[in-house]
Automatic annotation (TrEMBL):
GO terms for biological process: cell adhesion. SUPFAM superfamilies: Agglutinin HPA-like (SSF141086). Pfam families: H_lectin. Coiled coil: none annotated. The keyword Signal applies. It comes from Parasphingorhabdus marina DSM 22363. This is Conserved repeat domain-containing protein. Keywords: Signal.
Length: 471
C-alpha cells in the first residue's frame, strides 16, 4: 500500500507573468496623412499593455506624440500640435516602452509595476481657467526605494478638434511629481493652452522601474537585454535654451530610451522632446505651446527633473515563473525492520519544488501546502537534530535563494504552520505519546525571499522532508 501525500504550490500576492516590449517607430508626416496610423507590436501581448513614448525634436513647431487605441497587438500614433500652430507636423522618430499592467518581478528580484488611472485632475499655466489639482497613485505594495516612473495619456476623450487637420484643443500631456516608494502624483497638463474646454477624464498609463539601477533579463529568444533607470536633477530647460544631456545608466549603440517629466517647476508646464541620443546619453528639452506668449524657455531656477528608462536594444520579453512540485516516498521503516506499509511503520517523504521560469514569483509569496492522508500521523519529533522541528528544508543546486526557519510549535512568524482542517493554520502540534500528532491534517510551508529563476544553468529548486506514521 502506497500512501499518497497531496501537495500543491500556491502564491500569496503573486507577481503576474509579464510581457515587456521596447522599440521605435517613425511617427508619420501629417501634412500628407492627417489620420492616426497603426503601430504593430513585435509580438502580441496577453493583456492590453501601457504604452509610453518619447518623440524627437524634428520640426520646429511645438509638438507631442499621442498614443490611443492600445490593444494587445498595437496602438495608434499621431503627432499633435497645440494652438497657435497649424496642426500639421513633419515625421518624427519615436521610442516607446510597453508593459502589461500589474506587478512584475525581474530575474534579479527587482520589481516593476505598471498601471492605469482615470483622472480629470489638471495642471495649467497662467491665464488658463479652472482649478488646479493632482491625482494620487499608490503602488500595490511599497517598492524598495524611489522608482523611476514614466507616464503617458492613453485616451483622447477631451479632444474637440479634427486633428491633425487642426491643432489639438485642449492640448494636454501627462505630468508627475512627488515620486516615493509608495506612489506618486499625476495630472493632465494644459501648460498655457487656454483654448478648448476643461479636460474630461482621461486614462493615464504609467510604468515604474527601480530608480537609478540597472539589470538584465532575457527576451523571448533567451538573449539578454540590459535595462537601466535614472532620475535626474533639476537640470532640463526649455526649447529656446538648448539641449540638456543626461546619462542613461548604460552604454549601447542600439539603445531604446524614454524619458518623462517628474516635476512641474516651471509654471508654463510643457513636455519633453528628445534633442540628442548617443550610446550613453540622451539630450532633452522642455517644449511648450505658444498660446499665451511666443517664448519656449525655462529659467535655470525652474529647470525640470526627468525619469529616464533605457534598454540596450529593441526587444519583446515574457517574464514568468514556472513552478512545479513533485513528491516521492523515500523509505518505509516497519516495526519488523522491513520496508512495508504496515501499521506503525514510519514513512519519509521527499517533496521537490522547482522554478524553471525566467523570473521569480513575488517576494515571500511561495506557499507549499501538504495534505496528510487520514491513515497517517505526522511525526513531530525533530527531523535533523535538536530544535530543527519535524520539517527539513534542503536548498537545491542551482540554489533557490530562499530561506527557511523553524522557531518552535506555536510560533506563527516562522516558515511552518499546521492545521487540523486545511483552513485555519493556527494549530500547535504536540506529542500524543508515540512521537506523532494524529490531529494534524495539513502542513503549510512558506520559505522567505524570492525563488530564483532559471538563468541558463537549470531550474532552481529546494526540497522538503517530513515523516509520518501509519495508523
Amino acid at each position: 500500500m502506497l500512501l499518497a501525500l497531496a501537495v500543491w504550490p500556491a502564491f500569496l500576492s503573486p507577481a503576474m507573468a509579464g510581457r515587456f516590449e521596447a522599440g521605435s517607430f517613425t511617427a508619420h508626416d501629417t501634412f500628407g496623412n492627417r489620420n492616426p496610423v497603426r503601430v504593430t507590436f513585435q509580438q502580441p501581448f496577453d493583456t492590453v499593455p501601457i504604452v509610453v513614448a518619447l518623440a524627437d525634436t524634428a520640426g520646429n513647431n511645438s509638438a507631442s506624440i499621442r498614443i490611443t487605441n492600445v490593444s494587445t497587438t498595437g496602438f495608434d500614433e499621431l503627432i499633435l500640435e497645440p494652438d497657435n500652430w497649424d496642426g500639421q507636423h513633419i515625421a518624427q522618430n519615436v521610442h516607446y516602452i510597453a508593459v502589461e499592467p500589474g506587478r512584475h518581478v525581474l530575474p534579479d528580484g527587482q520589481i516593476v509595476e505598471a498601471g492605469r488611472i482615470s483622472t480629470a485632475a489638471t495642471q495649467f499655466g497662467s491665464g488658463v481657467a479652472g482649478t488646479a489639482s493632482w491625482q494620487s497613485v499608490s503602488f500595490s505594495e511599497l517598492l524598495p526605494g524611489t522608482p523611476s516612473v514614466i507616464a503617458q495619456i492613453q485616451s483622447a476623450n477631451s479632444e474637440t478638434q479634427s486633428v491633425a487637420n487642426a491643432p489639438s484643443r485642449p492640448h494636454i500631456t501627462a505630468i508627475m511629481q512627488g515620486l516615493t516608494s509608495a506612489g506618486f502624483q499625476v495630472a493632465l497638463d494644459r501648460s498655457q493652452a487656454n483654448s478648448g474646454p476643461i479636460p474630461s477624464s482621461e486614462t493615464i498609463g504609467w510604468i515604474a522601474f527601480p530608480g537609478n539601477l540597472s539589470g538584465t533579463f532575457p527576451d523571448i529568444a533567451s538573449n539578454p537585454v540590459t535595462w537601466s533607470s535614472v532620475n535626474t536633477g533639476a537640470t532640463i530647460r526649455g526649447w529656446d535654451n538648448g539641449c540638456f544631456t543626461s546619462g542613461i545608466g548604460q552604454t549601447s549603440s542600439s539603445r531604446i530610451v524614454v524619458a518623462k517629466k517628474i516635476s512641474r517647476n516651471n509654471a508654463d508646464g510643457g513636455w519633453f522632446r528628445r534633442c540628442s541620443l548617443n550610446s550613453s546619453t540622451i539630450g532633452l528639452r522642455v517644449d511648450e505651446d505658444r498660446d499665451q506668449d511666443n517664448e519656449r524657455s525655462v529659467a535655470s531656477a525652474d529647470a525640470e527633473r526627468a525619469s529616464i528608462i533605457a534598454f540596450s536594444r529593441s526587444f519583446h520579453a515574457l517574464l514568468e515563473p514556472d513552478i512545479s512540485a513533485s513528491k516521492v516516498h523515500v523509505t518505509f521503516e516497519d516495526p519488523f525492520g522491513g520496508e512495508f506499509a504496515l501499521p506503525d511503520a514510519v514513512v519519509e517523504y521527499l517533496i521537490t519544488v522547482e522554478n524553471d521560469g525566467n523570473a521569480p514569483p513575488n517576494h515571500d509569496s511561495l506557499i507549499l501546502t501538504e495534505a496528510l492522508p487520514s491513515s497517517l500521523s505526522l511525526v513531530v519529533s525533530d527531523f535533523a537534530g535538536p530544535g530543527s522541528g519535524p520539517i527539513q528544508f534542503q536548498d537545491g543546486s542551482p540554489s533557490s535563494g530562499l530561506s527557511f526557519s523553524f522557531a518552535g510549535f506555536g510560533n506563527f512568524a516562522d516558515s511552518v504552520d499546521f492545521s487540523t482542517d486545511g483552513v485555519n493554520f493556527t494549530y500547535t502540534p504536540s506529542d500524543s505519546g508515540d512521537g506523532t500528532d494524529p490531529a494534524v491534517t495539513h502542513i503549510r510551508i512558506q520559505p522567505a525571499g524570492f525563488m530564483a529563476p532559471n538563468t541558463g544553468t537549470g531550474a532552481t529548486s529546494f526540497a522538503i522532508r517530513l515523516k509520518g506514521k501509519i495508523n
